[in-house]
Amino acid sequence: MALVVQKYGGTSVAGAERIRAVARRVLARKDAGDSLVVVLSARAGDTDRLLTLAREMSPNPDPRELDVLLSTGEQITVALFCMAVKELGSEAVSMTGYQAGIITDGHYGDARISWIETLPVMEKINEGRIVVVAGFQGYDDGGNITTLGRGGSDTTAVALAAALGAQVCEIYTDVEGVFTTDPNIYGKARKLDKISYEEMLEMASMGAKVLHLRSVEFGMKYNVPILVCSSFTDATGTLVTEEDEEMEKVMVSGITYSKTEARITLTNVPDVPGMAARLFRPISEAGINVDLIVQGSGSIPGRANLSFTVPKPNYQETMQIAERVAKEIDAGVHSNPNVAKISVIGVGMRSHSGVATKMFEVLARENVNLKMISTSEIKISCVIDEKYTELAVRVLHDAFELDKAPGERITIKEAK
Amino acid sequence: MALVVQKYGGTSVAGAERIRAVARRVLARKDAGDSLVVVLSARAGDTDRLLTLAREMSPNPDPRELDVLLSTGEQITVALFCMAVKELGSEAVSMTGYQAGIITDGHYGDARISWIETLPVMEKINEGRIVVVAGFQGYDDGGNITTLGRGGSDTTAVALAAALGAQVCEIYTDVEGVFTTDPNIYGKARKLDKISYEEMLEMASMGAKVLHLRSVEFGMKYNVPILVCSSFTDATGTLVTEEDEEMEKVMVSGITYSKTEARITLTNVPDVPGMAARLFRPISEAGINVDLIVQGSGSIPGRANLSFTVPKPNYQETMQIAERVAKEIDAGVHSNPNVAKISVIGVGMRSHSGVATKMFEVLARENVNLKMISTSEIKISCVIDEKYTELAVRVLHDAFELDKAPGERITIKEAK
């Protein structure tokens, strides 16, 4: 008998029929002999409805009270779900974040779980009941209700799985798993059977909206296998787990893209210490997150070009800062708000060379100009013109044969 | 500086504008120097919406989970209200039943407050903040969420006022106070300035839907003055308080009516011990509440007539039981599902005689036949044909001069 944590997202519990369907799914699993902890999100649309109510009261609602308000969304779902389970003749008991002992720091709206008091949940499991926990919420040491930020129910589930020593944490959503790239962009995208935590982190931060970033970090830290699968089908899903030998043999696991950033370049920046700080301090003080930063030689000796990307909504404000700084240090500025970032991800890159070269060649062959390049151990990112995004995804997916099962690929032999 | 508990009902907080209006009202009171604890109900309609969701899951939803579900209604209101107060530049903090230390027994859906841990609320009051408590809810000693039944926010407010030693508990609703009778039935109904707890209990149980019965019991037990007033006007309201000399001088305080009961009579019941038990045991075992019971002589010597009233929805079922019992004991049965109960209420009756006589005379003058009569120290109830309800209310109201201020009445002189 295994202990399993399952999480169902908002679309999986939207409406009475969907809730009943999930209840039947959970009961089938219990009948098969497993103990179950079920974590639920708010019904799709409920959180937005609550946010609308809040904005009617204040353009900038008090963060503590916003968490009190938003946490009702999940409380409603867990109560309805338990009613459905009872109606099907089994025993379930709902728990709010507070009742389930989910203790967080005090950052309203974006709290982090500090620890979990597992006794209340374990007691109910030991009574043979299905424990149904409201996701996305906890409480701080002052007894105040907190929420974990959008998508935080994933984190609730993985953290509970870690704390309870569950065999697996299953995340049910409206997609069948993690794909080699966005299936909406390229029909040949293939569902991955397995992916490492690190790759998943890169995929998640690159905009593959399957798992909440922090939940993957939790999984990695406490080594909780996370199975991502659909609540609408019986397909197998994708297992997010520790890196293993098999994964290392696979050079590239996926291609991701992001169209949410704009690029700004300062040209001919004096190549003396402190120039980067002079630019980036006012930007970070304005609360703007800089993603990629690349510095290269400028056209004048002793001068450098400094390119970086920021989220598109911050583009105008960042440009004002950049132009002011450029004037002070006698540099030029140019920018492009219409760029995309394409990334090739794979833990196998650690032991394979030639991935970057192949990526550059493939994009060059299609006349896609690379505006910035950034590499890490398991990822190569290129910034390109936004209009080439879909083309780049397709040709890279083809070039690395991601539509084929890993064993059938013939690209690049191991070089080391 | 006084500590005041205020409670606002569902219509007072329905919609953003109403919530803002209540927030302004509360802030004005705070600016006048008082410390405030505000108890809120769910927004009008929210509880019904949640009940509909529950019934979609089960015709008979699990009581524990129903309380988890329903308690979100008040949690939403308190959060929105605090946002409004903050937006107006003052400090408020919301508390759920759990956070406010409202401890109840474990009767889901109809829990009774066992005690209140006042420290969390007092701490926040001492910080100078307006404390906003979700009404209608608490938690039992197993940490489960409970609710106090419909109208339970009144009880939350009065119980908190008692526990905190508040100077007064103000109940804001959509009527201006307690009236001598239902103003919808008789336009001459007059708002009472003051009423005793006992009278209010009789009024509440007779269907004057102003205050939750249990909240009045709490007020009486702990001697908390309760001011009932409108949140829509600045009218003075009605103070529910201890009986005083002034009240005793007033013979009759109000006339109430109820059309919710049916009358059943067993005729010529053998006048031997055990007959009443034989009839009422099966009725109570069926979960039916009998209200009035009157026994008198029957037409045959040694036989008696036994009349009683039950709620209209239980009429058919009760008739089946009555007919079965009547057959066994050789009695007759007749019934009338279309009756009303008219009551004259006043603590002054204790020291005045002649009220009953006057009531009977007034009704006789209008040819209203009395089918049952029941009296207590401060109340006389008559069961009459339902069609005479409004007429009876009007003529009694006139006869006891309830449209006049107590000092200006000339009816019946003190007899003792």
Short précis:
The structure is a homodimer of 416-residue chains. With 416 residues, the first copy, chain A, is of the alpha/beta class.
- Briefly, what CATH class of the largest domain in chain A? Alpha Beta
Strand content of chain A: 25-35%
- The count of DSSP E runs of length 2 or more, i.e. the number of strands of chain A, is 20
Number of helices of chain A: 12
Shape of chain A: globular
CATH architecture descriptor text of the largest domain in chain A: 3-Layer(aba) Sandwich
Oligomer: homodimer
Main sheet makeup of chain A:
8 strands, mixed
Q: Measured on Cα atoms, how large is the radius of gyration of chain A?
A: 24 Å
Percent helix range of chain A? 25-40%
Can you tell me the CATH topology of the largest domain in chain A? Carbamate kinase
User: What is the domain tally of chain A?
Assistant: 2
Overview of this protein structure:
2 copies of one chain form a homodimer. The first copy, chain A, is globular. The first copy, chain A, is of the alpha/beta class. In chain A, helix 1 packs across helix 3 and helix 11 crosses helix 12. Chain A has 2 domains: 172 residues, Acetylglutamate kinase-like (Carbamate kinase, 3-Layer(aba) Sandwich); 172 residues, VC0802-like. The mean pLDDT of chain A is 91. The first copy, chain A, contains 12 helices and 20 strands. In chain A, strand 11 and strand 12 form a beta hairpin. Chains A and B meet through helix 1, helix 2 and helix 3 of A and helix 1, helix 2 and helix 3 of B.
